[in-house]
Amino acid sequence: MIKRYVYGKPFETYSVVCLDGVTEAAGEERSLFAKVDMEKALEPYGGITWDRPEDAAMGAMQYTRTMESEDVVYGLGENVRGINKRGWIYESKCSDDPNHNESKRSLYGAHNFMIVAGKECFGIYIDYPGRVIFDIGYLDKNELAITVCSENYTVYIITPDITPDVTSADGISPLYSILRQFRHMIGRSYVPPKWAFGYQQCRWSYKTAAEVEEVADNYRSRHIPIDAIYLDIDYMKDYKDFTVDKEAFPDFPDFVKRMKDKHIHLVPIIDAGVKIEEGYSTYEEGVEKGYFCKDAKGRDFVVGVWPGRVHFPDVLNRQAADWFGHGYKVLLDAGIDGFWNDMNEPAIFYSEEHLKEVFEQIDEYKKANLDIQTFFEFKDKVDGLANNLGDYERFYHRATQPEGEVVIRHDHVHNLFGYNMTKAASDAFKELAPDKDILIFSRASYIGMHRYGGIWTGDNHSWWSHILMTLKMLPSLNMCGFMYVGSDMGGFNDNATEELVMRWAALSMFVPLMRNHAAAGTRYQELYRFTDTDTFRKLIEIRYALIPYLWQEYNKAVDSETLMYKPLGWEHPGDRHAVATEDQLYVGDSMMICPVYEQNAIGRHVYLPEPMTMVRLKSATDYEQEKYAAGHYYIDIPAEQVVFFIRDGHKVPLGKSAEYTDALDDSDAVWLG
Ligand code: GLC
Fold first, then answer.
1. What CATH topology corresponds to 550-672?
2. Hey, whose CA ends up nearest to atom 7 of ligand 1?
3. Residue closest by Cα to atom 4 of ligand 1
4. How many Å lie between the centroid of ligand 1 and the Cα of residue 619?
5. Is 256 helix (H, G, I), strand (E, B) or coil?
């Protein structure tokens, strides 16, 4: 059952698409959220860091609830910390922050759905695109407090709705019942083209066509399977969206075709900011038609990103979004069939207005004797230039709403930018290339975007802890509808080692988006750069042999509105050890994975909540199987091998590997288990 609580006059986010069976809360029920003084409510969380003080008068609203000791809280999509979200504070605020560590409260997505599971089970979705704070046992370990920094928003409370005709094993559990109702309400998840399940290679940046071809040839000559190579920002002319640097990539359509002939898709990046430059058609058209976000005085708002000064397309406005989406045409026409949308939180290095203010202050500091106070003030001013929360209060959208165009300040709808940029592209693809299946995923997102594309989890590090973090995020991303997901394999920032990339590959091979990506200035981490390329070839071949299973389970989870990645506690809610296990996952209906995420490990502890068959793969064709009873085990897992488990009575197909997905032949699978 779903109950809807509408407070004030909410901004329409279009995240919910199906209201069948949803009932409206009335009377006393509406006191679920109570009005609080924003300043007081936010004080223990660091105060009003985003909304301008004058907004405080508008008030915030809060929901509180005591948590029982056995309550587990699942959800919140892309976020730091555990599968069980208890014991920390999270904030909905799409953030361009590359330091994904435990002190953070937000990453790039804002996914306001969670399930409280205990004696009582319920789901809660806060449909508000501004700031929401989820204190899940932070101030008081037994209290849940959700603060919405607005009086205009919608809440959905979902309780289990177990009907007698539900016969599947997972359908009986209240958790799955809540999840399915929520997923049904937000609409069907995006399904990418099948080649997007192949191995993909990225780096910031392969700067010329020759460099890209060299990467392709290095994979092909070593027979390491691959389906896609990415074009990061340097393929563009001076970082201008929808342009190609003709010197570095002469005759681009011909180059795209040459790569297609090698069965490699090229996937260019598109950034949110449009460079301000006379003669650049996207910029000139945007200005002429009034399609950019405006400042308080109605002028096109200026911020700095990769190309220097840019404007943001007003993707919340239908005409502007349609126009921006059609910008992708030039690349589609060149034969491109995959894109990644970036910097769409939107990331801001500086706003012109704020930069001016800081420069003026620096002039003052120049004259001063920088002491303990002034030195740190000065340092904070400069450090605080990028992604400054105040900058999100300096610009406006002309958002298309059911009642017409509404002028709204960005911070109130901040979390919708990446969603609408990606929707703009996806809508345009349907018109421009109706017969083409196009890969698209984004960095920033809000629930609703899952219908239009996938996400990758942004700028992680080549750290062992980030292998585990990837695993922990998979179920909560699925809960929020995001099915085509993945992290930068091998880690984006910092230098990777061969062992780390191997272990990361042994997790990523079970994840839809298996993309190796690294930042500029870091050690090269294409698989052929390391010594043991033979092992990497075998690992990627195993991935390709698993595609029949992964593709089938992906589509099944999309169609039946459920999880592809299931925490052990969802399958065994009554088993305390299963609920507390946060480093293993069920993948689809039949398989359980247990990746190694520690340096120099020789194996790991594995908990089996039920009897299972262990599969040990030394290659895509060389494997052993062994039956295990339920219980705790230490399993040896060398970095050259892949181990997973199959549930009793289930079978997992292991196909014949191929060097690219088009050559996969599903008819030839052996059935494990
Ligand atoms: C951002 C992206 C990263 C990309 C870089 C350059 O940091 O998250 O993936 O490589 O920008 O475009």
1. Immunoglobulin-like (2.60.40)
2. 459
3. 204
4. 33
5. helix
Q: Which residues pair with 616 in a beta bridge?
A: 624, 643
CA distance between the termini of the chain: 38
Q: How far apart are CA 378 and CA 358, in angstroms?
A: 9
Peptide bond into 346 cis (omega under 30): yes
Copy the structure tokens of residue 81.
């910390």
Running DSSP on this structure, what letter comes out for residue 78?
Answer: S
Select from 229, 231, 236, 459 the residue to mutate for testing ligand 1; criterion: most ligand atoms less than 8 Å from CB: 459
Q: Has residue 483 got a pLDDT over 50?
A: yes
Domains 2-186 and 550-672 share a fold: yes
C-alpha 460 – ligand 1 centre gap (Å): 10
CA of 233 to the centre of ligand 1 (A): 8
Phi, psi angles (nearest 5°) of residue 606: -130, 135
Please state whether the predicted TM-score (pTM) of the whole model is above 0.85.
Answer: yes
Element (H, E) at 339: strand 338-342
| Domain 2-186, CATH among 1.25.40.10, 1.10.260.40, 3.30.450.20, 2.60.40.1760 | 2.60.40.1760
Query: For residues 61 and 34, is the Cβ–Cβ distance under 8 A?
Result: yes
* CA pair distance 584, 565, nearest whole angstrom: 10
Decide if 527 contacts 533 (C-beta within 8 A). Answer: yes
pLDDT in tens, 583-622: 999 999 999 999 999 999 999 999 999 999 999 999 999 9
340 Cα nearest atom in ligand 1? 9
Q: What is the largest CA-CA distance in the chain?
A: 77
* Nearest Cα residue to 344 out of 405, 283, 384, 303: 303
135-147 burial: b if 16+ Cβ within 10 Å, else e: bbbbeeeeebbbb
For ligand 1, atom 5: residue with the closest CA: 204
Q: Where are the domains of the chain?
A: 2-186, 350-385, 550-672
Whether the link from the prior residue into 205 is cis, omega within 30° of 0, is yes
Q: Which helix (H) or strand (E) holds 83?
A: none
What is the CB neighbour count within 10 angstroms for residue 278? 6
Q: How far apart are CA 185 and CA 181, in angstroms?
A: 6
pLDDT tens-digit readout, 9-44: 999 999 999 999 999 999 999 999 999 998 899 999
Q: Give the tens place of pLDDT for each residue, 176-234.
A: 999 999 999 999 999 999 999 999 999 999 999 999 999 999 999 999 999 999 999 99
* Strand-pair partners of 270: 341
User: Facing residues of 311 across strands?
Assistant: 274
